[in-house]
What we know:
Elements: H1 9-19, E1 24-29, H2 36-44, H3 52-56, H4 58-61, E2 73-80, H5 99-118, E3 123-126, H6 134-140, E4 145-146, E5 152-153, E6 161-168, H7 188-192, E7 198-200, E8 203-204, H8 210-216, H9 223-229, H10 238-241, H11 244-249, H12 262-265, H13 269-272, H14 277-284, H15 293-304, H16 313-320
The structure holds iron/sulfur cluster (2 copies).
Residues 147-149, 153, 183, 186-189, 242-245 line the site of one iron/sulfur cluster (SF4).
Amino acid sequence: MSRPRPTGFEHRLKAQALAAGFDLAGIATLGAPDTARQFDDWLAAGHHGEMSYLERGAELRRDSRRPVPGMVSALVVALNYGGTQPPGPVARYARFADYHRVMWDKLDALLAWVRGELGDVNGRSFVDSGPVLERDLAQRAGLGWFGKNTLLINPQLGSFFFLGALFLDVALMPDEPFATDHCGTCTRCLDACPTQAFVAPRVLDARRCVSYLTIELKGAHTPEQAAMIGDHLFGCDVCQEVCPWNAKFSRAATEPAFAPRAELVEPDVAAFAAMDDAEFKRRFGDTPLSRAKRVGLQRNAVTVSPMWAPPNADTRARRRAPSMPYLAF
Length: 329
Ligand code: SF4
Ligand code: SF4
């Protein structure tokens, strides 16, 4: 919808997003993603493995105007979750309550603010929750570039952040897309990946990625998969940990809901193997671990258990070394 907007509306909208706690905010015009072709090639190669929902939603992902008819612009936001936490068997993003609710609440509040400013506006929030290539949208909104590890990297924040978008049926003045690539000749992420999951820079074969193997994949691990997983109980941050942009610019999360839980920073991996549904739900039902469900976590615990002793800094460092030789403990 093209409607008159107060002078400086876009600037104030982004300022409102930052005031709501987001670390980055930009505006993009919806349309065909620049990476639509690469996405199609990736699917055609089967690199998505068993994530069939990506195939089902492919037609919608080929144009961000399709998921919600009438939407024309997006406020794209990023929320830092803290890349300065120590490494561990649970990926950093999963060490606290599920982030979707936190992001949605902030985006809903921003939609209410937009309505207060412009009147009757339609909007829809997306947080990894719909058929939208959010990283593409974030690059368009000027928030960063696609690193060789496939993640969006911001030159002031690194890559340890969640992305979200508020779609609006109001035509907004977009920001300049992020046009430069700051990876240069660096290949640290490609070299450090414990499973050689990158078939080329910016092309990830998810079937080899520890995050896929410990979260998305159903069923028992094969011996080859178990060897690739090493001591990762849930997810993997290695290709972010080694990135010099994170080494320099990652910072602790300021969002109170993202304070890491001790039992997920230093988990008793063996205890997962004995956990019943009720205990799993009580302790982890509100965290991202619930995506893999209790059976998935138990499978992972069995897979990694030969690598693990009960939490103890010395044994952990020693046991991690064979599978993660690129990390200096
Ligand atoms: S998350 Fe881990 S396994 Fe997956 S690509 Fe990155 S380093 Fe490799
Ligand atoms: S590790 Fe190097 S190549 Fe990989 S994303 Fe970071 S800067 Fe780019």
